[in-house]
Specification:
about 30% helix; 11 helices; Rossmann fold; about 350 residues; Quinone Oxidoreductase, Chain A, domain 1
Length: about 350
Amino acid sequence: MKAVVLRGVNDLRVEDLPDPKPKAEEALVRIRMAGVCGTDVHMWEGKNFEGAFPFVPGHEWVGEVEEVGAQVKTLKKGDRVTGECFIPCGVCPICQNGGEPAFCRDHLYYGFSWDTAGGMAEYHASPARRLHKIPPNMSDEEGALVEPVSVAYHSIWGRGGGVAPHDTVAVFGAGPIGIFAIQVAKVAGARVIAVEPMASRQKMAREIGGADEIVDPSQEDFSKKMMDLTGGLGADLIIECSGSKDGIASTVDVAAVHGRIVLTGQSMGVKIPIELGKTIWKHACVVGSCGSPFFFPKTIVYMSRGLVDFKKIVTDRLPLKEAAKAFALGKRAESGKIMLLP
């Protein structure tokens, strides 16, 4: 089969690999579409090292079951599926204490190592327990978007406590996850302020996300502008998707009394000065949001209802053989979500 392989920093290849054979507890999936995530691009650039080279990337994908192992009872040939990123060991102290799969000390991380290959390939063998069926009324593009949409959906409805029409929501960073967060908040009736310095992403926040207001933190007195837009109250819910030092630090400045701050953007290793005393005097709540544990089923139900056209974020569709071009496009702020078609 043809597969994308990241051999190292700036070393992306499309190679011929042996067709995978499903084990007893696995399903063999023919990949129909795989999304390029910013994490994939950052590993290619050498800015992120979540993956262990070499590996087949791709943790955003949809495919069709071709074959199931002898122990698989939940899937059949022809089912369309997508897959979780993490499988927990189930026996370490964190698992036994109720920790989510991403925090397991011995988890399997699909799309980030050679033995746990991702979906940027013609075929993919996967344990059935990480696979979720895609209903007939969802397109392939929507199926491949389940993982990134679930991150935004979990940030708001899992860690953020949800939104209501009387809320003002500020979304920091208008990349794909930020756009999805804007869309999820808007469909709930909330007023949404997108905080984004790049003009191209401001345009996406307005035209694709439907943001009510755009604030450019690089050009304006950010805190004053935010307070002016909220009548001096601040934002009820802040979804921080940028991962930037300035973005994270400023969340407590513009949060409302009893405001909720959800840190979603990747910022491992980042240490910044932040006036945490303001969280005390605002009774603000700051939480981290890692991935979307146990939110794939909820996200699929949500997406299947057709309340939001998440497909609008897809700007490029390329054959698998043009993976290098797709990753190069992924570096550009003008691109939304890029799909590879095996």
